Automatic annotation (TrEMBL), chain A:
It comes from the Bacteria. GO terms for molecular function: peptide transmembrane transporter activity. This is ABC transporter substrate-binding protein. It comes from Paracoccus caeni. One of its GO terms (cellular component) is outer membrane-bounded periplasmic space. Belongs to the bacterial solute-binding protein 5 family. It holds the Pfam family SBP_bac_5. It is found in: Periplasm.
TrEMBL record, chain B:
It is a multi-pass membrane protein. Belongs to the binding-protein-dependent transport system permease family. This is ABC transporter permease. The chain crosses the membrane at residues 9-30, 99-122, 134-155, 181-199, 235-261, 281-307. Keywords: Cell membrane, Membrane, Transmembrane, Transmembrane helix, Transport. It is found in: Cell membrane. InterPro entries: BPD_transp_1_N, MetI-like, MetI-like_sf. Residues 95-304 form the ABC transmembrane type-1 domain. One of its GO terms (biological process) is transmembrane transport.
């Protein structure tokens, strides 16, 4: 009797639980691929860190919908001296930090000094920064040792970001970041959620940066590492937005009444990073053999399955970007094993294995590697495919003794010099006097049209010297609730204008 | 009895120490660098090296181990490299979903397996017996992730009866959190019921053939009394053993189910920790799991005393 009563009570409890509401209103629940493992975006170049922290930490500049740099915490674009070495930046007044203090030039100077010391993108130009000074309560001046055109773009980027903190919390390690953003960090439960709540004293930026309407009461970022679980959560209405979904899920989401897919057309580019420091790929003829042998279109098809999700495009920036050029793209997608064999013969290739380092963290990396292996072997290469987990890859790629090519990808970045592979200081170590001369001119030049022309020369260098191997363009799939509006598709989607229809 | 408990306690410490030592060495010998992962793809080797120094990863393994042991003896399992929290805090936050899930799913497994196992043994060779054996084999053969995915798609996404994943999110109350455990508990319960069913059936079959069962029937006892009072009680030891081991497995090994349903439990924690090379969390989880195994074994052995008066320690 007791047992039956317990069973009935249990069944009643299950039914009661199952009938409850699934999500509270006023909140936007966003499924992301994992936790932001730091809330200090200066020290991280991970996209997931940018997606979360851009809601509570702000930079002097940001990008508009056309990827043009516009002021955010700065009051205006900088005044640049004629010789291109002095940047005077006016600051907005009356901007509050989440701790109640007001931002001034001392906070900005201290934050940018820290950025120069700890952020990878800041450290990369530290030698070119002579000083960062608070020259008035609402003005800072950055003095460079030589002209560096991408500076303002770097200050706008949300990855390895030059965010502004109160001077009081500046330290090598910042555990509890305080910012000026439209939301503030309320709670963080590892592997469960990051909860952001509206910052009531937020002051809107200028028109160019666009309104940050603070529509949701709360934004919750929920780490969901498994792609299928993100899809099911989106389709069941549990999540309002889901990042980084598989292309296989596109049709199912499209057919749903609850959610719809968001296609980020030509989101990014997979690339074969080339080891210029040691091993086989230090020989130009070997690099050219690889370039000629790879069947780029087949690799893209194997990786993405449907032309809706990729484009066979050799230009380092797709059409629509100011940096788009077709220079030297005749060397792309040659897919000619005989030509490759000729290069191998010229190199005196003796069958030494070509080591391709990849992982299955991103399945499309592995799928491209498999096709590449077959094509390279047909051209006469001996290929050693080293498939490891992501942690091992992240370590091994820093050791030039362990690989010849490693597979990676990147979104299209607003400024070409944000692509680290172009620089000799990167792990690939691509150094070539002609390329260095072009790159130097490109970073010094401030006129956009002149920079575009130089960029075409840079692309010629990438193809001619096989500095790296672009495989093509791919589109990314995200998903959103059909009730959700106000989110602009982006590699780093922001939710301050997100609204849910009842 | 006291000396038995003391021996078991010493054994427990030795097991935990050995597990810890092996785990400490193995995770550090495995390739992969937490500093590279933390800083992201564009971090320079100098940045990575600086972070390794800050995290103490540049020290020799022996020095790291000595420092870890000294801290562990004081109850300090170190700081998670990724969560910026003490490992003990991280582990404590994972205890509730994991333990409650284990208890729920064990309950589901017992409710399914025990009555069917007893009945199948009692009606040996019947249709029910054959069906139960086949079903048990099927349940044991289908991996829990597949059962989980099917339940998730049809019961959560399509029918909307249950949440698809997670543990309720920010501010979720107890009822909401428990609601998120129903589907994972059913998934794990079904998978684990197969083993318990087969053990129950086998054990009952042995006992039902014993002389004292025949004697009990000869004395005119009802079948219900014979089966439930005499046979089941004596079949208890193997059943308790398998239930204890299943519970320990559920606490430490619900990795796949926690992953499918995105539950913030110990299984998910240890998978993420391995992928991120979060050494202190891996070590801390292994200590807890090893301690739990030893403890569950001890409790199981002590339960024998309650079930069978002939057992002496």
């Amino acid at each position: 009797m007791k047992f039956r009563a317990t069973c009935l009570a249990g069944a009643a409890a299950v039914a009661l639980c199952a009938a409850g509401p699934l999500a509270a209103q006023g909140n936007v629940d966003v499924a992301i691929i994992g936790d932001a493992d730091t809330f200090d975006p200066m020290i991280s170049t991970k996209d997931v860190v940018s997606i979360v922290t851009q809601h509570f930490l702000e930079t002097l500049y940001t990008f508009d919908e056309n990827w043009q740099v516009v002021p955010l915490l700065a009051a205006d674009m900088p005044t640049i001296s004629e010789d291109g070495t002095t940047y005077t930046i006016p600051l907005r007044e009356g901007v509050s930090f989440h701790d109640g203090s007001t931002m001034d030039s001392a906070d900005v100077a201290a934050s940018l000094s820290r950025w120069k010391d700890v952020a990878s993108r800041g450290m990369a130009i530290a030698d070119q920064i002579g000083s960062i000074e608070a020259t008035a309560p609402s003005e800072i001046t950055i003095t460079l040792t030589e002209p560096y055109a991408p500076l303002v773009t770097l200050l706008a980027f949300s990855n390895s970001a030059a965010v502004i903190y109160p001077e009081e919390i500046i330290a090598p390690e910042i555990k509890e970041p305080i910012g000026t953003g439209p939301y503030k960090l309320e709670a963080y439960q590892p592997d469960q959620y990051t909860q952001l709540v509206r910052f009531d004293d937020y002051t809107q930026p200028g028109e160019a940066a666009g309104e940050r309407a603070q529509t949701p009461d709360e934004i919750r970022f929920i780490p969901v590492p498994d792609t299928n679980t993100r899809v099911e959560g989106l389709l069941s209405g549990q999540f309002d937005y889901a990042d980084s979904l598989s292309t296989e899920a596109f049709a199912r989401i499209e057919g749903s009444d609850v959610a719809e897919p968001v296609l980020l057309d030509a989101f990014g580019w997979p690339l074969f990073a080339v080891n210029h420091k040691k091993g086989l790929m230090t020989d130009l003829n070997i690099r050219r053999a690889v370039q000629a042998a790879l069947p780029y279109d087949d690799m893209l098809f194997a990786a993405f399955g449907d032309e809706k999700f990729f484009q066979t495009d050799g230009a380092l920036y797709p059409e629509g970007w100011p940096w788009h050029t077709e220079a030297a793209t005749e060397l792309y997608n040659i897919n000619d094993p005989e030509k490759a064999a000729e290069y191998l013969a010229e190199a005196g290739y003796d069958g030494q294995p070509l080591r391709i380092l990849t992982s299955r963290q991103y399945e499309f990396h592995y799928q491209m590697a498999e096709v590449a292996q077959m094509a390279l072997e047909m051209a006469g290469f001996t290929v050693q495919l080293d498939v490891v987990d992501w942690a091992t890859l992240a370590q091994n790629r820093d050791n030039p003794d362990l690989w010849d090519i490693y597979i990676t990808h990147s979104p299209f970045l607003p400024e070409p010099t944000l692509t680290s592979s172009l620089f000799g200081t990167a792990r690939e170590g691509w150094v070539n006097p002609d390329k260095e001369e072009v790159l130097e001119r490109f970073t010094r030049e401030t006129d956009l049209d002149a920079r575009k022309a130089i960029y075409a020369e840079l692309q010629e260098q990438v193809y001619g010297d096989v500095g790296m191997i672009k495989i093509g363009n791919f589109s990314a799939v995200q998903g959103k609730s059909r009730k959700l509006s106000g989110v602009v598709p982006s590699p780093w989607p922001a939710f301050w204008n997100a609204a849910k229809a009842e | 009895m006291r000396s038995y408990l003391l021996r078991r306690l010493i054994g427990m410490i030795v097991v935990i120490f050995l597990v810890l030592t092996i785990a400490f060495v193995l995770v550090r010998l495995a390739p992969g660098d937490p500093a590279s992962l933390m800083l992201g793809p564009d971090a320079s080797p100098e940045e990575v090296a600086a972070l390794r120094v800050r995290l103490g990863l540049d020290q020799p393994i022996i020095a790291q181990f000595g420092s870890f042991l000294a801290n562990a003896l004081r109850g300090d399992l170190g700081q998670s490299l990724f969560f910026n929290q003490p490992v003990t805090t991280v582990l404590a936050s994972r205890a509730e979903p994991t333990i409650v899930l284990a208890l729920f799913s064990l309950l589901v497994a017992l409710v399914i397996a025990t009555p069917i196992g007893i009945w199948a043994a009692y009606r040996r060779g019947s249709v029910l017996d054959q069906t139960s054996i086949t079903t048990a084999m099927l349940a044991a053969s289908v991996p829990s992730f597949l059962t989980g995915l099917v339940f998730q798609r049809y019961l959560a996404t399509d029918l909307g009866w249950f949440p698809a994943s997670g543990y309720g999110g920010a501010g979720a109350g107890f009822t909401e959190r428990m609601r998120h455990l129903i589907l994972p508990a059913i998934t794990l319960g079904i998978t684990n019921s197969a083993l318990i069913l087969r053990f129950t059936r086998a054990s009952m079959l042995d006992i039902l053939g014993e002389d004292y069962v025949r004697t009990a029937r000869a004395k005119g006892m009802t079948e219900r009394r014979v089966v439930l009072r005499h046979a089941l009680k004596n079949a208890g030891i193997p059943i308790i053993t398998v239930v204890g081991l299943t519970f320990a497995l559920l606490v430490s090994g619900a990795v796949v189910t926690e992953r499918v349903f995105n539950l913030p439990g110990m299984g998910n924690l240890v998978v993420n920790a391995v992928l991120r090379r979060d050494y202190p969390v891996i070590q801390g989880t292994l200590i807890v799991v090893a301690a739990l195994y030893v403890l569950v074994n001890l409790i199981t052995d002590l339960l024998y005393l309650a079930v069978d008066k002939r057992v002496k320690y």
